[in-house]
């Protein structure tokens, strides 16, 4: 069974679900100094390469992209982490900060299951530890896309039919992680950002993570 990484929290959801906004809100809360915010794709070399692909600059075979998302995750956990950290997630968690990542291996299972099939998508995640706490932002693609609408240029995955399939994969994948010891909190992401922020800090507190 996969290892659980203490002090590690992950936010997941389809594009426009509001995970980035919630990390920002956490970093503007009175508890900010306890947290180390990060994201995947990372801002390291592999992550930047992936973002160029996501922006439509060039195409990759979907399997190549799946391997690269996993390689970026390896660097995020155990390598330099990204441009603004000096050592990966595992080192920061061990130092006592709570790392909060906007996306992690559940994104690969959901998105890459749609682009290149569930078997490869799941297999590539086998080496990675699970977070202590997972927030899944549940939302209808129509609602999430209407939020993204105002943001300008869309990335290649920001399309309603694709996101509907991705949302289904997320729900299925996350239910398969029940019983692993990872705490899973499903958020109704259609609520206001203040309501969602309150639920998140409440769940982090209930998990006993703020008192450490
Ligand atoms: P996103 O997290 O929405 O970042 P931004 O808000 O900066 O655009 O975009 C990342 C995209 O990458 C998103 O569509 C999901 C996709 N993705 C995968 O397909 N697999 C993965 O493993 C990860 C981490 C992201």
UniProtKB/TrEMBL annotation:
One of its GO terms (cellular component) is cytoplasm. Pfam families: Thymidylate_kin. InterPro entries: P-loop_NTPase, Thymidylate_kin-like_dom, Thymidylate_kin_CS, Thymidylate_kinase. Its EC number is 2.7.4.9. It comes from the Bacteria. GO terms for molecular function: ATP binding; dTMP kinase activity. HAMAP family: Thymidylate_kinase. This is Thymidylate kinase. It comes from Treponema saccharophilum DSM 2985. The lineage of its organism: Bacteria, Pseudomonadati, Spirochaetota, Spirochaetia, Spirochaetales.
């Amino acid at each position: 069974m996969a290892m659980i990484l203490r002090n590690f929290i992950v936010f997941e959801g389809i594009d426009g679900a509001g995970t980035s906004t919630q990390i920002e809100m956490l970093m503007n809360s009175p508890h900010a100094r306890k947290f180390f915010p990060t994201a995947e794709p990372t801002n390291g070399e592999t992550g930047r390469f992936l973002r160029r692909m996501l922006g439509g600059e060039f195409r990759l075979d979907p399997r190549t992209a799946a391997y690269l998302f996993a390689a970026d995750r390896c660097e995020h956990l155990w390598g330099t982490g990204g441009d603004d950290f000096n050592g990966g997630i595992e080192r920061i968690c061990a130092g006592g900060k709570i790392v909060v990542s906007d996306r992690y291996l559940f994104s690969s299972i959901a998105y890459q299951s749609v682009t290149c099939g569930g078997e490869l998508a799941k297999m590539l995640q086998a080496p990675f530890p699970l977070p202590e706490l997972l927030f899944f932002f549940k939302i209808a693609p129509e609602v999430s896309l209407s939020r993204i609408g105002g943001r300008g240029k869309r990335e290649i995955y920001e399309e309603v039919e694709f996101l509907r399939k991705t949302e289904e994969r997320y729900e299925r994948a996350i239910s398969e992680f029940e019983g692993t010891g990872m705490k899973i909190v499903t958020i109704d992401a259609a609520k206001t950002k203040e309501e969602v922020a309150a639920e998140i800090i409440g769940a982090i507190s209930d998990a006993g993570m703020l008192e450490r």
